[in-house]
Amino acid sequence: MDRELVVRKTADFVRQKLGGEGTGHDMWHAQRVHETAVSIAKGEKGADLYVVQLASLLHDIADHKFTKDDKAGQRMAEAFLKKQGVDDKTVAHVSYIINNISFSGAAEKPKLKTKEAMIVQDADRLDAMGAIGIARAFAYGGYKGRTLHNPVKPSDYGSFADYKKANALDATTINHFYEKLLLLKGKMNTETGRKIAADRHTFMEDYLDQFYAEWDGRK
Asked: Disulfide: which of 43, 123, 129, 193 matches 133 by Cβ 3.0-4.6 Å?
């Protein structure tokens, strides 16, 4: 099997499915996560680059936030990869990654079992940080009809079920920083991920300082 061809076909499949998506979970998100994951993988001894490439491209092919089905992306990815003749072991590994890398609340504990899953999770979380992470947060907030800011205490979700419910609540985009984005720096799996996250975390803190100064009329 020509693995490079499979990766190219996978990228084409993702572009077809997610092109024009407007919430920040589009084909460009998948491409950025793919590029970051490949970069991280090259610095992680023993990582299976093929699995990392396929999983990073397909990780958001049918996100649960839009399908209301936690397994939809997993099933779609499995069907596509099997159609390409990808071996069962690789399909199972990619499926495992898709099904296990999502953020599940502040109280989540490390649970990933493979280096490849840790790499893809780091790459996905890095795209939720920094300048692009901020842009994506407000894009998704607009999609959900959330207010920019309302001075109410952020929620502390103790489980994935609680975190998912937030998508249906009157949450605010600024609170999302405290409920997820600012927590990601401490949840990185790889050394490369931690280094990149530190810089993006600082950028988000600086952004919030400016936001509050403008909100209060101080700048």
From this structure: 129
